[in-house]
């Protein structure tokens, strides 16, 4: 349908004064915005648009030992680098869509957010070069302003160019590329640091700063993709007479008072689950070095397993959950599997590849089953507010738990930290059980099979039409 709509849009004409169909025939397929070859080029640019952001987000994790030694900070201070990323997104997740739709537009907004990501990484690296940890924190704050909003812009481009049957595949590919960026970071930045150290003859904050500045090249690459993508989108708008992409988000904070108990339980599951994943990965490299006696390269590789597994599995699980339904059951499976993985890491010396593989599978499954549930418990006009609030409290939880995890590790060690993460997952399990029974008592849609859900939706549509 999307392709047919675009072809119809060609009829009025194009910028060179020729009829749309004639202009289309003169173009090579790769230059024609309505052709598949051109859309593949655009898709590649969309995927690489967030590569630099995801690559640099976990730079601190990949270089945890080096950051703490070279900057002479403890773990609590180190985890501030993650907290400062999350703080601005407690608020900005409500306004990212508004800025794209009403202020900047998708093209300028994407470039501005990419510039924030670039500037944040450069400030972060400069702080290391000048041995100023406060400047590194400021850089992460600037980086955070651009990072989450850039993801919103990326999704908006996807909807604008791939409406219809290709959209879910495009979202899956974008998520996979994001995980590739995180994986490459985990496995490469330690080697880059070692190479700079050998070239300079010694370690220190200068070596760290140069390493992080090299990491900023990926952000510059993504900024280039944003500029090229903006040009191609502007060109397509002129040729196809199509409007700029919009997020479609409608944020009304007054809607919060109408949120159901089921939605608040979904929020609680989201926070309790993710605070046991991202802070753990942020501190994981040294954990594997100290407990399992891995080398730095081995520790970086195993710490990236969660991202490696989620890259190919996320689209697969998304398709599976769409076809089967039963979202609450899948969420319960994911949360219980995650608890099992944390208990294995805490209380056994089993090969950690097993636990981290379980963590990667459960992380992918939960994302595919949990986030779509919001659409089943709130009206369509409140979706933007609900998702914005969900991201807001997720970032608030991550900021607070990142600091708390660093304090726990400094004072009690890794075993107590793993017990703390396991306790967070147990809270998520309690919330899932409550959600299951609440949904059962109220006859909700959350745990229906896909065919039951489709049948109910058709029946509701018939009743609405009758009324």
Automatic annotation (TrEMBL):
<comment type="function">
    <text>Lysosomal dipeptide uniporter that selectively exports lysine, arginine or histidine-containing dipeptides with a net positive charge from the lysosome lumen into the cytosol. Could play a role in a specific type of protein O-glycosylation indirectly regulating macrophages migration and tissue invasion. Also essential for liver homeostasis.</text>
</comment>
<comment type="subunit">
    <text>Homodimer. Interacts with lysosomal protein GLMP (via lumenal domain); the interaction starts while both proteins are still in the endoplasmic reticulum and is required for stabilization of MFSD1 in lysosomes but has no direct effect on its targeting to lysosomes or transporter activity.</text>
</comment>
<dbReference type="InterPro" id="IPR020846">
    <property type="entry name" value="MFS_dom"/>
</dbReference>
<feature type="transmembrane region" description="Helical">
    <location>
        <begin position="415"/>
        <end position="438"/>
    </location>
</feature>
<feature type="region of interest" description="Disordered">
    <location>
        <begin position="1"/>
        <end position="20"/>
    </location>
</feature>
<feature type="domain" description="Major facilitator superfamily (MFS) profile">
    <location>
        <begin position="39"/>
        <end position="442"/>
    </location>
</feature>
<dbReference type="Pfam" id="PF07690">
    <property type="entry name" value="MFS_1"/>
</dbReference>
<keyword id="KW-1133">Transmembrane helix</keyword>
<comment type="similarity">
    <text>Belongs to the major facilitator superfamily.</text>
</comment>
<feature type="transmembrane region" description="Helical">
    <location>
        <begin position="389"/>
        <end position="409"/>
    </location>
</feature>
<keyword id="KW-0458">Lysosome</keyword>
<protein>
    <recommendedName>
        <fullName>Lysosomal dipeptide transporter MFSD1</fullName>
    </recommendedName>
</protein>
<feature type="transmembrane region" description="Helical">
    <location>
        <begin position="261"/>
        <end position="281"/>
    </location>
</feature>
<keyword id="KW-0472">Membrane</keyword>
<feature type="transmembrane region" description="Helical">
    <location>
        <begin position="301"/>
        <end position="321"/>
    </location>
</feature>
<dbReference type="InterPro" id="IPR052187">
    <property type="entry name" value="MFSD1"/>
</dbReference>
<feature type="transmembrane region" description="Helical">
    <location>
        <begin position="353"/>
        <end position="377"/>
    </location>
</feature>
<feature type="transmembrane region" description="Helical">
    <location>
        <begin position="81"/>
        <end position="100"/>
    </location>
</feature>
<feature type="transmembrane region" description="Helical">
    <location>
        <begin position="112"/>
        <end position="135"/>
    </location>
</feature>
<feature type="transmembrane region" description="Helical">
    <location>
        <begin position="208"/>
        <end position="232"/>
    </location>
</feature>
<feature type="transmembrane region" description="Helical">
    <location>
        <begin position="36"/>
        <end position="55"/>
    </location>
</feature>
<dbReference type="GO" id="GO:0005765">
    <property type="term" value="C:lysosomal membrane"/>
</dbReference>
<feature type="transmembrane region" description="Helical">
    <location>
        <begin position="328"/>
        <end position="347"/>
    </location>
</feature>
<dbReference type="InterPro" id="IPR036259">
    <property type="entry name" value="MFS_trans_sf"/>
</dbReference>
<dbReference type="InterPro" id="IPR011701">
    <property type="entry name" value="MFS"/>
</dbReference>
<dbReference type="GO" id="GO:0022857">
    <property type="term" value="F:transmembrane transporter activity"/>
</dbReference>
<keyword id="KW-0813">Transport</keyword>
<keyword id="KW-0812">Transmembrane</keyword>
<feature type="compositionally biased region" description="Low complexity">
    <location>
        <begin position="9"/>
        <end position="20"/>
    </location>
</feature>
């Amino acid at each position: 349908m999307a392709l047919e709509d675009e072809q119809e849009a060609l009829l009025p004409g194009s910028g060179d004064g020729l009829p749309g169909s004639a202009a289309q025939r003169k173009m090579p397929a790769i230059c024609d915005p309505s052709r598949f070859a051109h859309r593949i080029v655009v898709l590649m640019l969309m995927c690489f648009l967030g590569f630099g952001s995801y690559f640099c987000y976990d730079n601190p994790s990949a270089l945890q030992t080096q950051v703490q030694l070279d900057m002479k900070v403890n773990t609590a201070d180190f985890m501030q680098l993650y907290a400062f990323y999350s703080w601005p997104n407690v608020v900005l997740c409500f306004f990212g869509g508004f800025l794209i739709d009403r202020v900047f537009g998708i093209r300028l907004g994407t470039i501005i957010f990419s510039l924030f990501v670039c500037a944040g990484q450069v400030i972060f690296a400069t702080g290391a070069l000048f041995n100023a940890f406060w400047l590194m924190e400021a850089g992460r704050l600037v980086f955070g302003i651009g990072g989450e909003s850039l993801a919103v812009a990326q999704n908006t481009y996807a909807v604008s160019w791939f409406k219809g049957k290709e959209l879910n595949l495009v979202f899956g590919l974008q998520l996979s590329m994001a995980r590739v960026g995180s994986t490459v970071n985990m496995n490469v930045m330690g080697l880059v640091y070692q190479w700079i150290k050998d070239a300079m003859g010694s370690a220190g904050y200068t070596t760290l700063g140069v390493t992080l500045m090299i990491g900023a090249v990926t952000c510059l690459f993504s900024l280039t993709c944003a500029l090229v993508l903006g040009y191609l989108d502007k060109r397509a708008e002129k040729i196809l007479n199509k409007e700029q992409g919009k997020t479609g988000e409608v944020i009304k904070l007054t809607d919060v008072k109408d949120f159901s108990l089921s939605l608040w339980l979904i929020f609680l599951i989201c926070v309790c689950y993710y605070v046991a994943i991202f802070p753990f990965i942020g501190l994981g490299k040294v954990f594997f070095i100290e407990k399992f006696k891995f080398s730095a390269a081995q520790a970086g590789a195993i710490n990236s397993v969660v991202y490696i597994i989620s890259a190919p599995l996320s689209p697969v699980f998304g398709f599976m959950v769409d076809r089967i339904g039963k979202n609450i059951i899948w969420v319960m499976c994911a949360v219980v599997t995650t608890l099992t993985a944390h208990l294995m890491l805490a209380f056994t010396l089993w090969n950690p590849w097993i636990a981290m593989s379980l963590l990667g599978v459960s992380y992918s499954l939960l994302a595919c089953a949990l986030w779509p549930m919001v659409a089943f418990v709130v009206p369509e006009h409140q979706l933007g507010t609900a998702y914005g609030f969900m991201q807001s409290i997720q970032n608030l939880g991550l900021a607070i738990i990142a600091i708390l995890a660093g304090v726990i590790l400094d004072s009690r060690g890794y075993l107590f930290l793993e017990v703390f993460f396991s306790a967070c997952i147990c809270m998520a399990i309690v919330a899932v059980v409550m959600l299951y029974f609440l949904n059962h008592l109220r006859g909700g849609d959350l745990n229906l099979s896909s065919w039951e859900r489709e049948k109910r939706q058709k029946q509701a549509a018939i009743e609405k039409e009758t009324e």
